[in-house]
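Researcher: First entry.
Model:
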Amino acid sequence: MKKFIVLFLFIFSASAFAQEKIDTVQIINNGTLNMEIDSRINNVIKAKEDAVCTYTSPTKKPIDKKPVVVKSNDPCAGMPQVSGFKIQIYYSKNRADADKVRAEFNKIYPDMSAQVVYYAPDYRVLVGDYFSKSSASKDIRRLKSNYNSAFSIPYKVLCRKAK
């Protein structure tokens, strides 16, 4: 009888403290991520997402100074770098390999600039300077013959060199 009571208490306590689980599916980069979370945690997360901050810090009245604007026909005047795109043709954890690919690229395509940049934990070989993805697409198609993994990424580009 004692064993029955102990077994009953064990099963009852396990079910009393069990978590409610909710399956949540989120699409991330053409894949799925399944999460099982407690409904109470889900409620706290939703409350934090829905919360609106009511405190606003006191602000000073802006001084109405008009900036001096020099009109020029040059769109790059005063902005050496702008937000644009570069084409990534290679990445590796080894800097020597990335430098070798950059040197090879400079021999094949002397009309395009190439550089090796470090984005932790990889070294990437980036080429060209483009204002938009569509302006980079022509060169991507050209580079696909030698570098089939070429694609454009957002990057600060030199305004004078960009296409």
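Researcher: Second entry.
Model:
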Amino acid sequence: MKYLTLLLFLISSELLAQERQNPIISPYGGIYDIPEAVVKADPNIDYKIVIDIVTENENPEEFNWSLNNVARLLNLHVVSGADPKKINVVLAIHGGATYAIAKDSIYKKKYGVNNPNNQLIKALKDAGVLLTVCGQSLISRKISADEVNENVEIATSMLTTVTTHQLKGYALLKF
């Protein structure tokens, strides 16, 4: 029993000593490698993922959790063995998350601070993520096309973005 307790302590200490990794998107989406994992990403698969992003920031002074989770998704797949050149991600941003892609002038008007998502949005785009925002959500929030972050494309709607990509074989996630 004494040796089992020592072994468990050593294993837990090793796990706790790990540092977050950001192999694709840094400094966002930090994750931990799990070397003992047997269920991993397949380096031979072409990953096609469309993500329904609807969650609004709880704290408008911090970056959007859902956008950071996209960075985590990319980092996790790469650490787990996926080929980064074979990961295609499309974001369908709408609802409460719409303000996350607004330029500083609009974000500041609503929340009183500059948009903390700007660098994360650029890092996602630089990593090959296609960021789209629902045109219907823009209209309902009175955000014009020229008030959208330059790294984000305007879509007719979240619904058409998701259905079009699902019919092209993309897996759907919702954040």
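Model: Note on the second entry: The radius of gyration is 19 Å.
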